[in-house]
Design goal:
41% helix, 16 helices, 14% strand, globular, 450 residues, Creatine Kinase, Chain A, domain 2
């Protein structure tokens, strides 16, 4: 008889052994687009995403990853991977590394190699935060069973599922995964990450174009995510409680419905009930959730900070090439030096969860000119970047990173200094030198080749 999961079984997901190394993992998402139209390429065909994966397997000595009969990714010999997102974008996941510079170097090298392979079959890897020219009605959905299950699920949600296709098929980001070594360390870092995520997001706003036109905001991506099933996204308010613990994350997650489950290697719709109910009553077919189901359920939650075996930071827009290291650099600098982490948390100590949640639309529209409660985002950004630089300097002094790692912060420091975001610069270029041409836009913002 299957042993049933109970609440206390799940806390192990958020535990770590003492002395665990503080590693750095980087994920970078890029669109796969036609260099002339800027629209997403299809999955199949000579110039499609599947052909790119085949090329990466051959040219980078990778191992193909499959979902059923369909190729959906490539595992590289160095341990990194490329995988296709639900809407056909290409996600690169680095090997967790003990050094920020090492993780960045590997990511940069692998992405440039992939871009050259893509170029030979007529595909451009497009950096940014939201695919600017692909209409929602022409997203080339990946032929995975779970894609259809998810789209049907979000359609049933009404208003909170309105932008599901855009979120799943058009948005891009640069994400960072960082480690914790105890329950106390978990909460301390998670609290800072929840508090600082909107500020990091404001410094990185970079999606002012949607469906080929300026959309009147600096981050269309943030707007999409703000209106997307808020039960499983947004701000983890309970992380700010004085007595917060990893079990609060368990309790939050088990209150949410599971969207899909794995049955005989295929993703199918799960009963639309909280995970806690499924643990108690089963799936209705004589089976009950396993640890694999729990891990799969956590993949179906998308808050700004997603806690699992690592702390995954998801708030930032994807930045233009070659500036993607700026976001990992800021998070590493703020997180891995205890004194800096404490000072950054103290800076934000009076900010409430409600203020953080209310700030999202303001930041999406105004960027650094927005506010979080009584605090000006621009001022908070200046201070957090100062602290992040100090944290990186400590790593350099300890030999964890080379001196050159400080340069990774410079693009965000320039944004804070000038008050001109990546989105502001994109808008000026679109109206000026690019002459509102998708081809010119792709040429400027693609991962370069040659």
């Amino acid at each position: 008889m299957q042993q049933r999961l109970v609440r206390d079984d799940l806390a192990g997901t958020f535990s770590a052994g003492a002395g665990r190394a503080e590693l750095v993992g980087i994920e970078v998402e890029n669109g796969l687009v036609d260099p002339v139209t800027g629209c997403s390429v299809p999955y199949g065909g000579e110039g499609g995403a599947q052909a790119l994966l085949d090329g990466i397997v051959r040219k980078m000595n990778g191992v193909p990853l499959f979902d059923g009969a369909y190729a959906v990714g490539v595992q590289l010999p160095n341990g990194a991977s490329f995988t296709l997102e639900t809407g056909g974008a290409l996600e690169y996941s680095s090997v967790p590394s003990g050094g920020l510079a090492l993780a960045v170097s590997g990511a940069r090298s692998d992405l440039l190699h992939a871009a050259a392979i893509a170029d030979r079959i007529g595909i451009a890897l497009l950096s940014g935060a939201c695919l600017p020219f692909t209409p929602e009605t022409r997203i080339p959905w990946l032929p995975k069973p779970r894609v259809g299950v998810m789209r049907r699920y979000f359609r049933r949600l009404g208003d909170s599922g309105e932008h599901a296709d855009a979120v799943m098929g058009l948005t891009l980001s640069t994400q960072v995964s960082l480690d914790y070594d105890s329950a106390e360390d978990f909460i301390e870092k998670a609290r800072l990450h929840v508090l600082a995520s909107p500020v990091v997001a404001a410094l990185s706003v970079n999606s002012p174009i949607a469906d080929g036109e300026l959309c009147g905001v600096l981050s269309r991506r943030m707007q999409y995510w703000q209106k997307f099933d808020p039960r499983r996204c947004g701000v983890l308010d309970f992380a700010l409680n004085a007595n917060a613990s990893p079990m609060d994350f368990v309790d939050w997650a088990i209150r949410l419905p599971m969207i899909y489950r794995d049955v005989a290697g295929t993703h199918v719709a799960a009963p639309d009930r909280p995970f806690a109910d499924l643990m108690r009553d089963g799936f209705g077919d004589g089976t009950w959730p396993t640890r694999d189901d729990w891990d799969l359920h956590l993949c179906q939650l998308w808050p700004q900070l997603r806690p699992r075996h690592t702390l995954e930071l998801r708030a930032a827009d994807g930045l233009p090439w070659p500036h993607f290291p700026a976001v990992p650099a800021m998070w590493v600098g703020l997180t891995y030096d205890p004194a800096v982490r404490a000072e950054a948390s103290a800076l934000l100590a009076e900010v409430t969860a409600a203020q953080l949640e209310c700030s999202v639309d303001d930041i999406a529209t105004k960027g650094l000119a927005a506010s979080i409660g009584p605090h000006q985002v621009a001022e908070l950004g200046h201070e957090l970047l100062r602290l992040a630089r100090r944290g990186l300097e400590s790593r350099i002094a300890a030999g964890a990173d080379p001196a050159g790692a400080l340069s990774f912060l410079e693009p965000l420091e320039q944004v804070a200094e000038d008050g001109e975001t990546f989105a502001d610069k994109c808008i000026m270029s679109w109206r000026g030198e690019l002459r509102q041409s998708p081809e010119a836009y792709v040429r400027k913002y693609r991962v370069p080749v040659g």
